[in-house]
Here is the input.
Amino acid sequence: MASLRCRCTSHGQLEINLTHTLRTMDLSQLTPFCLGQPEKFANFMDQALGLH
Here is the structure.
């Protein structure tokens, strides 16, 4: 099953909260999110936190 993602933009307003975004977003604009390589991110975080 593919994950979906979207970008929340302010459309010129100073602030739009998550509730507003979820209520007004155009779900047809969602695009499949290609899964990455979580082991690379885990290794990066281990190094950044000094665990490796």
About this structure: The chain is about 35% helix and 10% strand.
